[in-house]
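Dear support,

I submitted the protein below through the web form. The confirmation email said the job was done, but the results page showed an empty box. After a refresh the structure appeared. I'm attaching both so you can tell me whether what I see now is the final result or a partial one.
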Amino acid sequence: MSMDKRSLYDGLNQLESELQNSLNNLAEMKQSLQEIVEKNTTLELENQRLREHIRELNLVADAPAESAKQELSKSRMNLEKIYEEGFHVCYDLYGSRREHDEPCAFCLEVIYRESGK
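What the results page shows now:
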């Protein structure tokens, strides 16, 4: 009978060890996913900035100022969307996650500042 208890105890220890390994793997996967999401957001923001810059260059060469304002407002709407999804759009924290969706005055400045500045 004591052999059954020992094998049961050993089995529980093994199961506990396997569960701990699974939890460690899950934590690593979660961290990797977080890094991928942040990198993806950074790339999206960079891509958006490049498109905005190309648009501005084209608008300066081709279109009246009113058209430039409309294009800029679309870009700012995209920044606002990314911000509302929980990511920084300011220059210092660009692409990183806003912990607990806390407000960021720098992000808000980037999104809502006057376009003439």
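Response: this is the final, complete result; the empty box was a page-load delay. The radius of gyration is 25 Å.
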